[in-house]
Write the C-alpha cells for this entry.
Amino acid sequence: MIQNEMIPAAILVVDDEPSLRNTFRTFLKRAGYERVEAVPSFGEAIEAVTSRDFDLIICDIVLESHSGIDLLKEFRSLGITCPVVMITGYPHVETAVEAVRLGAFDYLPKPVEKEVLLKTARLAIQQHRLVQEKQAADSACERYRRFLETIFRSVSDSVVSVNQDLTILKMNQAAGQFFQTVQPALQEGGRLDVLCFNKDFCRLTESVRDVIDNGTELSDHRLECFPDGTCRVMSVCVSPLDDGTGVPAGAVLVFRDMSRQNQGDKGKRVRLHRLIGASPAMQQVFLMIENIGRVDTTVLITGESGTGKELVAHALHQESSRRNRPLVMVDCAAMPENLLESELFGHRRGAFTGAEENRTGRIPQADGGTLFLDEIGDISTAMQLRLLRFLQEKTFYPVGSDREVRVDVRVVAATNADLKEKVGNGGFREDLYYRLLIIDIHLPPLREREGDVMLLANHFLDRYAARMDKGISGISQQAMELLCRYRWPGNVRQLEHAIERACILCQGTTISTEHLPDEILDGSGEGLRSPALNVATGDRSAAALTPCGAQDDQVGQRIVAALRKAGGNKAKAARLLGVDRSTLYRKIRELHIELDI
C-alpha cells in the first residue's frame, strides 16, 4: 500500500454522532491531511476555533443543543474566515439558503459518500488558499504603495510625474514647496507647460516630450532659476514612466537644488574632527577645511589666542592625503630665538657651542606629512628669510652642514597677530607674507559664534566630569546664562579652563554660579585686552592689546598679579588670564616684565 503524501492542512469535524464523526475523521486522515480534529458539541467547536487555526470546518446541521446554523453564525461573528461545509440528513431549501447566506462553502446531504467528501474538502481548501494568497498579495501591495508614498513625500529632491499629455499626475511635498516660489500654477492636475516662463524651461518641456516619445532618459540637465532673487542651479533628471506595456505612459522629473547641495547635511553638523561648533561662522570654517584639506598647499590660519588654531591644523592634516604621515607642531613664540633655527632645521655636531651630537630638526621629522608653525608672526627677520627659502625650494641646510636636504612637507602656519600691519611697519617680510597667504582660514572669536558657548560648555563638562570621575550631569540655567553673556577674551581655551575649574569645585551633580570664576560673575571679560578701539573691527571691548602708554601699565599690572598668584608659573598665569602661553611670553617681552618670586 502506497502512503499518501501529507497534505499541510488542518480540518475540524463537528458532529454529535460518534460513528459519523469518526468516519469523516478516518476518511480525511487516510487521504493524507496533516491534522484532523473531531468534536461533538457547539462549545467544544468554539473552543477549538478560538485556540487553533483551521483550513476547513465540516459541521453537521443538527447538534444536541444547537444547530449548525447557530455555529456558523458564531464562526462569522468571531471572524473565522476558513470555509465551512454543512452536512444534513434532512435537506431543506430554507436551511440551504440560510447556510449559503452565512458564507457556507457547500451543503452536503447524508449519506455523504467518501469521494464526494474528499473532493469537496479539496476544493474548499484550494479556494481558501487562493483567497489567502490574494489577500496577502493585496496587503503587500498596499504596504508597498504606502511605503513608496512615504518615500515620495519625504525625499528632499523635488519629484514630479506627468502623463503623455504633460498633465501633472503627482508631485511630492518638496516639489510643491519649491514650485510655489518658482511657478505657483504648477500643481497636480495642471500642465507642465506652465514652466515655459523662460527659454531654458521651455527647452526642458521639449526634452520631456522627447523622453516620452523615444523612451530615453535625460540625465543631469542643469538650469538656472531665481525663485527668491538669488540664482539657484537645478539639476533635472527625466525618466520614462513605465506602466509595464513597453510604451512610456509619461515621465518622471527629479529636480535637485545643486546650489544648496553642499549646505545640506554639512550645515547640521556640530563637529569636524576635534573642532566643535554649530554657528554659521564655524560651519563656514568646516566647509573651508574640507575644501582646503584636499589641496596640498600652504595655509595660514589667523585668529585670536584660544580660538583653536591648532585644532584647525589637525583637521586640515586629517582631511589631506598626508593623514597617515606625521603631523609635527612647533610653537615659534615659546622657543628662544637662538634655538629656533636648530629646532626647525636640525644641526650637526659641533655646529655651535653645546652641539655635542647631530640633531634631526622638526622639518625632517615632518617629511611626507604636515608641519604646523604656530605664532609665525613672532619669528625674527633672519628666520623669516630661511623659512621663505624653504617654502620656495622645499630644501634646506641643517645648521653647520653643507649638505642640502630635500623634504616633502606641507606647511600650515598660524598667528594671532596682524601680519599685514607687521608688513607695513617692517616687522614681517612681505614676500613671506604673500607666500603664506595662498589660502587663509580665519577662526572667529567665541563672542562671534552665536550658540556655540552652550555647545562647548556641555562638551567640556562631559570631558572633565569623566576625567575626574564625578557625577556632574549639567549646568544650571543661571550659570549657563552668565557663560553665554560673557565676552570670552581668552576664547575657547578660557571657556575650557572655566569649566575645568568648575568641575574641580563642584561637589554635586550641577555646576552653578558659585563654581564660576569672578570675571565671569562680574562680566568684565577683559583679560589681557585693552578697551582701546580696534581699528579693524571697531570693537572696543574686544580690541587686541597694542603698546599705548597707560594701557600697557594696566596690562602689565594684570600680568604681574597673575604671575604672583601662579607662583611664577607662566603656564598657570596664562590660564588665569585666559590667554595662550605664547601670547603671555610675547607680552612679557614687549613690556619688559621682570618678576622675582
